[in-house]
Design a protein that fits this description.
- With 314 residues, the chain is of the alpha+beta class.
- The chain has ten helices and 16 strands.
- It has one domain: Beta-lactamase (3-Layer(aba) Sandwich), CATH 3.40.710.
- It catalyses: a beta-lactam + H2O = a substituted beta-amino acid.
- Keywords: Antibiotic resistance, Hydrolase.
- Its EC number is 3.5.2.6.
């Protein structure tokens, strides 16, 4: 796995297989310097954060606090939470104005300067790419807006909601929206901590290999969750909602589902400018993998592809 990232990059793996559970780490938190990476080192998850937002939606729905068909209005168009969680809202990938504010920090921290106030203004002037429910179009805007709306419904912030409904009940002591110990790198240059203040549900979560081992294990066995609401939510996020166009893959609540002869595989990848992540699990086989590195995504996607191959070989 270390051959798929630049020299000096750190890698942490969490593995569940018929042979048991393993936590494997390589490298140091700041490239060639810093403390050795451990199973408790925090990494930026990027879009793997979206799976936590999906679980929040399902958990609040299981408690009767929201419904999947509840709506948020963007440019006078009602979009259901289900539209947002399945990338069928018609929203563009990014909200209006974000690229302009991101340009000075495009290769380091592009979301950092985009404020909640700017997002509020953008919602009135957003133009949908297509009618809600018509097409699948991956949208950071959509899932980020879902996370924000869920937090507003709960009367709190997204980081506080994440902690109270997921991290604390599951014992994920290193999973939050605070800067992690692993310093992200782009082309072997260190970067500042990733910030995404207006849309944290799309990509602000940090986690550790140890926490992701627990996170994936409870997805494999929802009945082991500490509350009935989380058990129901863990089952809910795995239910296929639609078939991807020109593909056999399905979309669940955020998760991608791929049918294979060995059983359905659910997976998601993520990246910030300085970190890359991949998680996957197969309920039938009882296998799971989380792969984390403090090197930004490569154009060839080699780290994620290697992670998927390792997972399929478990």
């Amino acid at each position: 796995m270390t051959r798929t990232v630049p020299r000096g990059a750190a890698v942490a793996l969490a593995v569940v297989s018929p042979d048991g559970e393993r936590l494997l780490c390589h490298g140091r938190t700041d490239g060639s310097s810093g403390e050795p990476v451990t199973p408790d080192t925090g990494f930026e998850l990027g879009s793997v954060s979206k799976t936590f937002t999906a679980l929040l939606l399902a958990e609040l729905a299981a408690r009767g606090e929201v419904r999947h068909r509840d709506t948020v209005t963007v440019a006078d168009v009602p979009l259901t939470f289900l539209h947002l969680a399945t990338h069928t809202s018609g929203l563009p990938r990014l909200p209006p104005g974000l690229r302009r504010s991101a340009l000075p920090a495009w290769f380091t921290n592009p979301y950092a300067a985009y404020s909640v106030a700017e997002l509020d203004r953008a919602m009135d002037r957003t133009r949908l790419r297509n009618p809600p429910g018509d097409r699948v179009h991956y949208s950071n805007y959509g899932v980020g807006l879902l996370g924000r709306t869920l937090a507003e419904r709960a009367g709190t912030s997204y980081p506080a909601l994440l902690t109270s409904r997921i991290s604390a009940p599951l014992g994920l002591t290193g999973t939050d929206c605070e800067p992690g110990a692993a310093v992200g790198h782009f082309r072997q240059r260190p970067l500042p901590p990733w910030q995404i203040p207006a849309l944290p549900g799309a990509g602000a979560v940090r986690s550790t290999a140890r926490d992701l081992l627990r996170y994936l294990t409870v997805h494999l066995d929802p009945a082991a969750a500490p509350t009935a609401a989380l058990t129901a939510a863990l089952r809910d996020v795995q239910r296929p909602r639609l078939v991807k166009p020109r593909s056999m893959d399905r979309i669940c609540l955020v998760w991608n589902l791929r049918p294979t002869p060995d059983g359905d595989v659910l997976f998601h990848s993520g990246g910030t400018r300085g970190c890359t992540s991949f998680i996957a699990f197969c309920p039938r086989r009882g296998t799971a993998l989380a792969a984390l590195t403090n090197a930004g995504p490569r154009l060839d996607g080699r780290f994620i592809q290697t992670g998927y191959r390792i997972f399929r070989g478990l």
